[in-house]
Amino acid sequence: MPRQSRKPREMHLCRVAVSRVVDLGPSLRRITFTGSALEHLPYAGPDQRVKLLFAADSSKLPDVEGPFSAPRFMGLWAGSAFRGIAMRTYTIRHHRPSDHEVDIDFALHGPVGLASKFATEAEVGDEMTIYGPVSDYVAPPEGAWILIGGDDTAAPAIAAILESLPRDAVGKAFVEVGDSGDVQSIEAPAGVEVTWLDREGAPTATSLHLRNAVCGTAIPEGPRWVWLAGESSVVTSIRRYLVNDRGVDRRQISFTGYWKHGKFGV
Ligand SMILES: Cc1cc2nc3c(=O)[nH]c(=O)nc-3n(C[C@H](O)[C@H](O)[C@H](O)COP(=O)(O)OP(=O)(O)OC[C@H]3O[C@@H](n4cnc5c(N)ncnc54)[C@H](O)[C@@H]3O)c2cc1C
User: Fold this and answer.
1) Of the chain's two ends, which shows fewer C-beta atoms within 10 Å, N or C?
2) Which is the closest atom of ligand 1 to the Cα of 114?
């Protein structure tokens, strides 16, 4: 399918603070961030993502906010004010502009990563800077059969995509999570069957649940729309199988590595 950028004309830098922390399950935590600049964030698409900016000491986060085009932001990023700051990418699960709030759902994978550590230890009042949003989402063509697959990092995007689909959409969605307690209720179209795959605590990177489920699905002939996200080698191998062994046209598949086993900060 054609990659069509739906990037808003301006992205925004927003200074925010944690206002709520809610466990959706043993390994999925929803953090609500509040900040007055969130009122102006545009909507980029159902899988819209933002950069979270991390400094060793949050008081070192630059005290700037407002609209910043990508080139202007990159100029800022290259400067001394941003030295020592790291970025991670997360999906906006909900945006409530009038309440100046966004919800971000973190897959907790221990204190090894900056973002996971932040989410594990988050307390109301913790400061953060957000930059975005961006989305390359291209909606399914009318009548296309839907196939969606992802792990817990993609659960927020999958939930938002399912909620955005036409109510007469038909297909299947698979979401792999660390524990059966991470399963959430999603307002998917009645014709899209959502299956939650429980890793039962097994390491994400070696789990075959998602791959086996997506690759074992009967795919009808005709127009299809496939959306995959999760650990990079897993989504790449699923895509390769669908194209090479199942004859799915590569243009019908949108796939993104949301993280890479053993690599910091994808
Ligand atoms: C477009 C996009 C949207 C995303 N949206 C979300 C989202 O809404 N929620 C979400 O939780 N994640 C999301 N991610 C994934 C998230 O950015 C990565 O998991 C990121 O690496 C986490 O950063 P970290 O600082 O915790 O770990 P890093 O410092 O990046 O990595 C540290 C170590 O942990 C490993 N690691 C990273 N992520 C995981 C994981 N999930 N499970 C097990 N091991 C891991 C790495 O391989 C590395 O060995 C998204 C990524 C992209 C590209």
Assistant:
1) C
2) 25
Q: Is the pTM of this model over 0.85?
A: yes
Q: For the segment 107-166, what is each residue's pLDDT rounded down to a tens digit?
A: 999 988 999 999 999 999 999 999 999 999 999 999 999 999 999 999 999 999 999 999
pLDDT at 9: 62
Fold of the CATH domain 11-134: Elongation Factor Tu (Ef-tu); domain 3 (2.40.30)
CA of 258 to the centre of ligand 1 (A): 7
- The boundaries of every CATH 2.40.30.10 domain in the chain are 11-134
CB-side exposure of 221: number of CA atoms within 13 Å? 0
Span from the CA of 57 to the centroid of ligand 1 (angstroms): 21
Mutate to test the pocket of ligand 1, among 153, 184, 234 (most ligand atoms within 8 A of CB): 153
Helix (H/G/I), strand (E/B), else coil: 198: strand
Half-sphere exposure of 231 (CA within 13 A, CB side): 21
